[in-house]
Amino acid sequence: MNNTSLVIKREYLERVNKKSFIITTLIVPIVMVALMAVPTLIMLFAPSSDKNIAVLDNSGLILPQLKDTDDVHFFAADAPQDEMLSNDSVYGLLIIDRNIVANPSGVRILTSNTASAPVERTISDQMEKIIQDEKLKGYDIENLDDILKDVRTSVTVRTIKVSDADDEGEEQSAALNSVGGMMLNFVLYFFITMYGALIMNSIIEEKGNRVLEIIVSSVKPTQLMLGKIVGVGLVALTQILIWGVVIMACTTLILPMVIPADVMADVQAINAGTGSPDPEAMGMDVDVAHIIGTLSNTGYVAYILSLTLVFLVLGYLLYAAIFAMIGASVDNVQDASQLNIIAMLPIMIGFFAAMVIIEDPSSTFAIILSMVPFTAPMVMMARVPFGVPAWELATAICVLIASVIGFIWLAGKIYRVGIFMYGKKPTFRDLARWITYK
Amino acid sequence: MILEVDRVSKQFTNHVALNNVSLSVPKGSVYGLLGPNGAGKTTLIRIINHITAPDSGSVMFDGHPLTEADLVHIGYLPEERGLYKKMKGGEQAIFFAQLKGLSRRDAEARLKAWFERFEISSWWNKKVTELSKGMAQKVQFIITVLHEPKLLIFDEPFSGFDPLNAQLLKNEILRLRDAGATIIFSTHNMSSVEEICDSFTLINKSENILSGKVEEVKRRFAKGRYDFTVQGDATALIPKLMPLVESSETAVLPMDRTLLSVKLRPEVELRQAIEAVNSSANLVGLNENLPTMNDIFISAVNEANK
Fold first, then answer.
1. Residue A70: pLDDT band by 50, 70, 90 thresholds?
2. Is the N end or the C end of chain B the one with fewer CB atoms within 10 Å?
3. Which of A415, A425, A32, A9 is nearest to A240 (CA)?
4. Full domain range(s) for residue A380
C-alpha cells in the first residue's frame, strides 16, 4: 500500500467510524424523505378540521347556492346569534345583507375563532360567482343556465419541453423544477461548505498539534494533502450515496405503497404521456401529480443523482483545494475565519445566484455563471431539473476539471510551504512567493 | 559515511537559512548537531528528511544521492512533535510504521515487543488525549525507531522526559548505535552531548563554524590549560611559574594541597612548566584541563559573532 492510500484510508476511517457521522447519515435521509412526502400526503389525505358556518341570509339568494366544500359546510342559522357563536361546533356566523347583489360589501363573518384565509377565500369565490350569475339573470338572457354551464372553464397550464433527442417532448412543471433546483443547489452548497471546512480544520489541527512534523518525514506534503482531500471526499461520497440509495428506495418502493392505487394509475399515465390530467377528475392538484410522477420515475431520479454526483465531486475538489490553501496558511481557527471569506464568498455567490436563476434558468446570466468554475456546481445543478443542453454540461464539466487540476497544483505548492510556517500570518505576497519555492 | 552533506545552501524570502554547510556523519556514530536557536539546524534536518530541497549543494546517503526512497531508512523525531489526538496509541503507531514501509503484520509484531519493552502495553487502546506528555513521547520514540532505520535523527529527544525516562531513552539510543544505527542528535543540552556524542557540528548563523570528534575539539580548545596539584607550601612556586603562564588561579585544597589552574603562554611547552614546578614544590597531580562542551559552544559562537 503506498503512502497516499494509507493517508486516504486513515482520513476515511477516522471520520466514518465517528458516531456523529453514522447518526447524521441515517437521520438526514429520513428527514428529507419526510419533508418531501409529508406535504404530498397532507394534501392527499389529511382533511383540515371541518368548519361549520351558520348563514344568516337576509337576501335569500345566496344560501341555496352556496356549495359545501371538503372542509367548509354551510347551513342556515337556526338560533339566536349569541347561541350560535357560543356553540363549539359552529366556526362562525356569516351574515349577508338584503341588498347584497347591489352592494357586494354587505357581507361579514362573526366568529369567536381566529380568522381563516381559506374560509374567507371559499366564501368570497363562491359569492362572486353567485352574484355574477344573479346580475346576469337581471339581463333576461334566454337559456342562461345552459350558457353559464358552458362558460365555466378551468385552465391548467402544462409546459411541454421539446428537446432534440426526444421528439415526444417531456412534460414539465415549473413549480416542481424550481423546488428540485433549489434542493440540488442546497445539497451542493451544503456538501461543499461542510466538507471543505472539514479539510481546512483538519489541516489546521494537524499543523497545530505538530503531528505534521512527524508525518512529513514519511509522506510528501503534496501526497498528504491529496490523501486528505480524497479521504474526506470519499466520506462525503459515502454519505451522499447512502442518502441517494435511501431516497431512491423510498420513492420507488414506499411511495407507491402509501399512495392509493387510483392516484398511482393517473401518475403513471402522466409519466407515460398518455394521461390527460384533469385535476377535477383526479381529485388532486396537478402539481402533486407531477411531484409523485417525477419522484417515482427512477430513470429521471438516477439521471439527476448522477449529475449531482459529478458536480458534487468536482465542486468539492475545487473548494477543498482552496480550503486546504487557507488551512495551510494559518495557525489557528481564528485566523482562518478571516481568510475563510476567500472560499465562502464565491460559494455564497453561486448559492444565491442559483436561487435567482431558478426564475429564469436559460438566461445569459445563468449560462455564464454555470460555466464559471467557482459558481458552476451550484448554478448548474439548480438549472439541471429544467433541462440543460448537453454541450453546456460538457463545457462546464471540462472547465471545472481544468480548474480543479490547476487549483490542486496551486494548493500543493502553498500547502508544502505553509504547513511549516508558524507565527505570523502570511500576506498574499508571501503566498505568491511560496509558490516559487523549490 | 552514512551521510555526507556537501556545500548545502538554502535561502528563504528574507533570510539565508543555510550557507554552504558541509558535514559528514560516520556510520555507527552518535553525531551532535548543535547551534543556537534559529541557526538553521531544523532546515538542515528537513533537507536530510527530503521535506525541503536545498537551493544548491548535495546530500549523499549511504554512498548515493539522497532520494525519497531513502526515507524508509531514516527515522526522525522532531522537536515539536504531536500525535493524532483522537487515534488510539497502537493504531496510530501502526499507521506511521506503514508509512515507513512496514507491513501491517510486521508493524504490529514489532510494536507489541516495543510496548512490552517500555512496559506500556496497556496504552495500546488508549487515545492519545488520555496519555500524559511523557507517555506520548514514549510512543513517539517507538514510532521513530520501529522501522529499524539506518539513520536516526533526534531533535531534543529528552525534553519532556523525567530523569528516569531520559536515562531509559539514552540507553536505548546507545543500544541502537551498538546495533549499527547512526544517530544524529540535535540538542542544546551540552552535558548530554559530552555523554553520548562521538562527533558534532556546530552551526551558527547558517554556517558550519566547528566540526570534529568531541575529544579532538576539546583538546584543540584546551590550548595549554593545565591543573597542577602540589603538596605543601606553594609560595616559592608562584614567582617561578609566573613568567611561563598567561593566567593562573590558585585554590587551597584539603590536606595541605594547592591547586594551580594555569594557561601556558603559547611558546611555552608543558615540559618547561613541569620543570619549574618540580624545582620548587612537590608535584602530586597534573591534569590537562579540557573545556566542557558548554565552554566550547559559548566561545565558538562568540568568536564567530565577533
1. confident
2. C
3. A32
4. 3-42+174-436
What element of type H or E holds B295?
Answer: helix B293-305
Domain shared by A246 and A356, yes or no: yes
pLDDT per position as a tens digit, B258-272 = 898 888 888 888 898
Which residue of chain A has the CA closest to B47? A217
The answer, for B43 touching chain A at a CB cutoff of 8 Å, is no
Q: State which residue of chain A sits closest to B77, comparing Cα positions.
A: A214
Q: How many domains does chain A have?
A: 2
- Class in CATH terms, B225-288: alpha beta
CB A219 within 8 A of CB A276: no
pLDDT per position as a tens digit, A368-413: 999 999 999 999 988 888 888 889 999 999 999 999 999 999 999 8
pTM: 0.74
**What does the DSSP 8-state code read for residue B73?**
G
Q: How confident is the model at residue A43 (pLDDT cuts 50, 70, 90)?
A: low
Shortest alpha-carbon distance between residue A399 and chain B (Å): 33
The answer to whether the Cβ–Cβ distance between B96 and A215 falls below 8 Å is yes
Q: Please, which pLDDT band fits residue B4 given cuts at 50, 70 and 90? A: very high
Q: Dihedrals φ, ψ of A262, to 5°?
A: -65, -35
Residue A421 domain-assigned? yes
C-alpha cell at B106: 510486521
Query: What is the identity of the amino acid at A11?
Result: E
Count the Cβ atoms, other than its own, within 10 Å of residue B278. 13
Q: What are the strands of the beta sheet with B282-288, ordered from one edge? A: B245-253, B257-264, B225-231, B282-288
Check residue B122 and report its DSSP letter: G
Domain end (from A109, A136, A151): A151
Could you tell me what percent of chain A has a pLDDT over 90? 21
Amino acid at A20: S
Chain A nearest-CA residue for B96: A215
Give the model's pLDDT for residue A97: 86
Q: In terms of residues, how long is chain A?
A: 438
Q: Is residue A59 within 8 Å of residue A79, measured between CB atoms?
A: no
| CATH annotation of B3-218 | 3.40.50.300
User: B143–A214: do the CB atoms touch at under 8 Å?
Assistant: yes
Q: Does residue A253 lie in a domain region? A: yes
Length of chain B: 306
Tell me how far apart the alpha carbons of residues A357 and A366 are, in angstroms, rounded to a whole number.
6
Enter the DSSP assignment of B39: S
**Grid coordinates given for A247:** 431516497
Q: Do B68 and A220 touch (CB under 8 A)?
A: yes
The residue among A374, A40, A283, A338 whose CA lies nearest residue A176 is: A40
Structure letter (DSSP) for residue A254: I
The per-residue pLDDT for B154 is 93
